[in-house]
UniProtKB/TrEMBL annotation:
One of its GO terms (cellular component) is glycosylphosphatidylinositol-N-acetylglucosaminyltransferase (GPI-GnT) complex. The gene is Pigh. Pathway: Glycolipid biosynthesis; glycosylphosphatidylinositol-anchor biosynthesis. This is PIGH acetylglucosaminyltransferase. It comes from the Eukaryota. Residues 30-99 form the Phosphatidylinositol N-acetylglucosaminyltransferase subunit H conserved domain. PANTHER family: PHOSPHATIDYLINOSITOL N-ACETYLGLUCOSAMINYLTRANSFERASE SUBUNIT H. InterPro entries: PIG-H, PIGH-H_dom.
Protein backbone atom coordinates (compact mmCIF):
# COMPACT_ATOMS: atom_id res chain seq x y z
CA UNK A 1 0.00 0.00 0.00
CA UNK A 2 2.93 2.37 0.71
CA UNK A 3 4.34 1.72 -2.76
CA UNK A 4 0.97 2.59 -4.28
CA UNK A 5 0.89 5.94 -2.44
CA UNK A 6 4.49 6.65 -3.48
CA UNK A 7 3.69 5.78 -7.11
CA UNK A 8 0.65 8.08 -7.06
CA UNK A 9 2.73 10.92 -5.57
CA UNK A 10 5.42 10.50 -8.25
CA UNK A 11 2.79 10.37 -10.99
CA UNK A 12 1.07 13.55 -9.74
CA UNK A 13 4.43 15.32 -9.46
CA UNK A 14 5.35 14.37 -13.04
CA UNK A 15 1.97 15.54 -14.36
CA UNK A 16 2.40 18.82 -12.46
CA UNK A 17 5.89 19.30 -13.92
CA UNK A 18 4.67 18.65 -17.46
CA UNK A 19 1.82 21.14 -17.01
CA UNK A 20 4.24 23.71 -15.58
CA UNK A 21 6.67 23.33 -18.49
CA UNK A 22 3.92 23.40 -21.10
CA UNK A 23 1.75 26.26 -19.83
CA UNK A 24 3.75 28.34 -17.32
CA UNK A 25 7.54 28.30 -17.83
CA UNK A 26 8.37 30.81 -20.57
CA UNK A 27 11.89 30.52 -22.02
CA UNK A 28 11.87 33.37 -24.50
CA UNK A 29 9.75 36.40 -25.36
CA UNK A 30 10.04 38.41 -28.57
CA UNK A 31 8.52 41.53 -30.05
CA UNK A 32 8.23 42.23 -33.79
CA UNK A 33 7.05 45.69 -34.87
CA UNK A 34 6.14 46.35 -38.50
CA UNK A 35 4.94 49.91 -39.05
CA UNK A 36 2.50 49.07 -41.85
CA UNK A 37 0.97 46.00 -40.16
CA UNK A 38 1.23 45.88 -36.40
CA UNK A 39 2.97 44.37 -33.40
CA UNK A 40 3.52 40.65 -32.88
CA UNK A 41 4.32 39.36 -29.40
CA UNK A 42 5.60 35.76 -29.16
CA UNK A 43 6.22 33.70 -26.04
CA UNK A 44 8.13 30.40 -26.31
CA UNK A 45 7.51 27.91 -23.51
CA UNK A 46 10.01 25.40 -22.12
CA UNK A 47 8.08 22.56 -23.77
CA UNK A 48 8.56 24.13 -27.22
CA UNK A 49 5.02 25.47 -27.46
CA UNK A 50 4.70 29.03 -28.79
CA UNK A 51 2.00 31.58 -28.11
CA UNK A 52 1.62 34.52 -30.50
CA UNK A 53 -0.48 37.65 -30.15
CA UNK A 54 -0.92 40.17 -32.93
CA UNK A 55 -2.05 43.77 -32.44
CA UNK A 56 -2.99 45.81 -35.50
CA UNK A 57 -1.12 49.09 -35.81
CA UNK A 58 -4.42 50.99 -36.04
CA UNK A 59 -5.19 49.91 -32.47
CA UNK A 60 -1.84 51.06 -31.05
CA UNK A 61 -1.93 54.46 -29.40
CA UNK A 62 1.56 54.38 -27.87
CA UNK A 63 4.30 52.26 -26.33
CA UNK A 64 5.43 53.28 -22.84
CA UNK A 65 7.68 52.11 -20.02
CA UNK A 66 5.61 51.68 -16.89
CA UNK A 67 6.75 51.02 -13.35
CA UNK A 68 5.30 48.91 -10.59
CA UNK A 69 6.27 48.44 -6.97
CA UNK A 70 6.65 44.81 -5.98
CA UNK A 71 7.52 44.21 -2.35
CA UNK A 72 10.43 46.61 -1.79
CA UNK A 73 11.66 47.09 -5.32
CA UNK A 74 10.56 48.96 -8.41
CA UNK A 75 10.01 46.87 -11.54
CA UNK A 76 9.92 48.47 -14.99
CA UNK A 77 8.04 46.93 -17.88
CA UNK A 78 7.11 47.84 -21.42
CA UNK A 79 3.43 48.37 -22.26
CA UNK A 80 1.39 48.89 -25.39
CA UNK A 81 -1.47 51.34 -24.96
CA UNK A 82 -4.44 50.43 -27.15
CA UNK A 83 -6.58 53.21 -28.54
CA UNK A 84 -10.20 53.41 -27.41
CA UNK A 85 -12.39 53.10 -30.54
CA UNK A 86 -15.06 55.37 -29.02
CA UNK A 87 -12.66 58.04 -27.74
CA UNK A 88 -9.57 58.70 -29.94
CA UNK A 89 -7.83 60.46 -27.04
CA UNK A 90 -8.52 57.62 -24.59
CA UNK A 91 -6.86 54.31 -23.84
CA UNK A 92 -9.00 51.17 -23.88
CA UNK A 93 -6.40 48.65 -22.68
CA UNK A 94 -2.83 48.38 -21.43
CA UNK A 95 -0.95 45.32 -22.74
CA UNK A 96 2.18 44.54 -20.68
CA UNK A 97 5.15 42.97 -22.50
CA UNK A 98 8.06 40.81 -21.30
CA UNK A 99 6.31 39.81 -18.06
CA UNK A 100 8.29 36.59 -17.65
CA UNK A 101 11.75 37.71 -18.69
CA UNK A 102 11.62 41.06 -16.82
CA UNK A 103 14.51 42.74 -18.68
CA UNK A 104 16.55 45.49 -17.01
CA UNK A 105 15.60 49.13 -17.51
CA UNK A 106 18.49 49.83 -19.91
CA UNK A 107 17.29 47.00 -22.18
CA UNK A 108 13.72 48.26 -22.03
CA UNK A 109 14.88 51.74 -23.00
CA UNK A 110 16.56 50.37 -26.14
CA UNK A 111 13.39 48.50 -27.16
CA UNK A 112 11.28 51.56 -26.29
CA UNK A 113 13.40 53.85 -28.48
CA UNK A 114 13.15 51.45 -31.42
CA UNK A 115 9.38 51.19 -31.03
CA UNK A 116 9.05 54.98 -30.82
CA UNK A 117 11.07 55.39 -34.02
CA UNK A 118 8.73 53.03 -35.85
CA UNK A 119 5.63 54.73 -34.41
CA UNK A 120 6.98 58.13 -35.45
CA UNK A 121 7.54 56.85 -39.00
CA UNK A 122 3.94 55.68 -39.05
CA UNK A 123 2.67 59.09 -37.87
CA UNK A 124 4.74 61.10 -40.35
CA UNK A 125 4.28 58.80 -43.37
CA UNK A 126 0.65 59.76 -44.17
CA UNK A 127 1.53 63.48 -43.93
CA UNK A 128 4.46 63.13 -46.37
CA UNK A 129 2.39 61.50 -49.11
Amino acid sequence: QNSMVLSAAIFITLIGLIIYLHFVKIDQESLLVISSLGIQVTSSYASGKESTTFIEMGQVKDVVINEAIQMQKVIYYLCILLQDPEDPQGVSEVVPLFQSSKPRLDCLIEVYKSCQEILEQRKTAPQAS
